Amino acid sequence: MESNWANDFYKMQYKFIGNYPEGYHTKAANEILEQAGKPVESMLELGAWDGSLARALSNQVGQITTVELIKEMVEKAKSLNPDNIETVHGSFYDVTIKHKFDVIIYIDGFGVGTDDDQLKLLKNIKHWLKDDGCALIDVYQPEHWKKADGVEMYLNRRDMPHIKRRYSYDFEADIMMDTWWHEKDEKLNSTQYLKCYTPDEIHNLCRRAGLNVTGYFPHGAMDYESMKYHEHASLKECLSYRIKVVK
Asked: Any keyword Methyltransferase (predicted)?
């Protein structure tokens, strides 16, 4: 169930961002394994981009399967992946995966589409999980993004001095919109749309899918008055939080 914006936006986003700083994915991988709380023999990553995070995990996980929508990213991942990573091209709403996994991860991107789309994805995750497995999913916190409505900034003045973004918020539908463009031509822009959920809302949605939330891990928050990012924030103030779910 592809969104009609996702292919263009994520392809453009990857073109602008390129490679993350050295050590970025290693830190993220260690955090994921700590939150999983057990040895991981098999893992499924949804929305894997070029496979950088999976490769950072591959030394500590026996077998990894990744799912990615953007064809170019899939091709790059396949050219770089070690033997214990299998990359699948397709939408995680519709893709067929026969295996079951100790851990499933969806890092930074949950919320594409409607509540029904998210419910379908969560049901897929339940189906793909082993009985004693867990999933780690990043969810955008609406209270943070309400404050970001109308904020415009450069993405990274040092490394990407010409790329700008604007945040908007749909207060009725609780959708965060993130628009990117090159400053030379704002008309050539692309927008990401992600549904935001409070902890109670995502808990209820998971319950409908047959999953139980056993942990919440808040991420940092942006202070839009000082335009400074703070590494630590409360569950109510954070820009996103990670949930740990089990059957």
From this structure: yes
Which two tokens mark 20?
A: 């993350």
Closest listed residue to residue 166, CA positions, set 197, 140, 192 = 192
Q: Which two tokens stand for residue 60?
A: 């500590």
| Chain segment 195-226, per-residue pLDDT in tens | 999 999 999 999 999 999 999 999 999 999 99
Is it the case that residue 3 has pLDDT exceeding 80? no
Strand pairing of 42-46 and 101-106?
Answer: parallel
Measured distance CA(220)–CA(237) in Å, rounded: 8
Q: Is 162 helix (H, G, I), strand (E, B) or coil?
A: strand
Per-residue tokens: 246: 């089990």
Using an 8 Å Cβ cutoff, are 11 and 72 in contact? yes
Which domains occur in the chain, in start order?
6-140+198-220+239-246 (3.40.50.150)
Does the pTM surpass 0.85? The reply is yes
Helix (H, G, I), strand (E, B) or coil at 144: helix
> What's the one-letter identity of residue 171?
F
CB atoms inside a 10 Å sphere around CB 35: 16
CA distances, 225 to each of 141, 165, 196, 237 (Å): 19, 16, 22, 14
Query: d(Cα 47, Cα 96) in Å, to the nearest integer?
Result: 15
Averaged pLDDT for residues 71-77: 93
Interatomic CA distance for residues 101 and 45, integer angstroms:
10
Q: Are 121 and 92 in contact (CB under 8 A)?
A: yes
